[in-house]
Amino acid sequence: YINNKEPKLSKQNVIPILISAEFLVIKRLIDESITFITTNLSEVSQVPIDMNCLSSSIVKRLADSVSLEKLVS
Fold it and tell me: What is the DSSP code (8-state) at residue 15?
């Protein structure tokens, strides 16, 4: 993003990138990270990473982005 390079999001790096993007207020990267997480929720949720660093606003956005059907499956 700094040098016009797109980060390659993966299940291992998406949470740290999301935390950094929020800290640096990079809205587009926050949006892309949230979309990646909601699309790949089952894989991302299995990665052993502490998600306590996520702000309440990000957690709310994630909750609003995930459907009940996605949580059940």
Answer: H
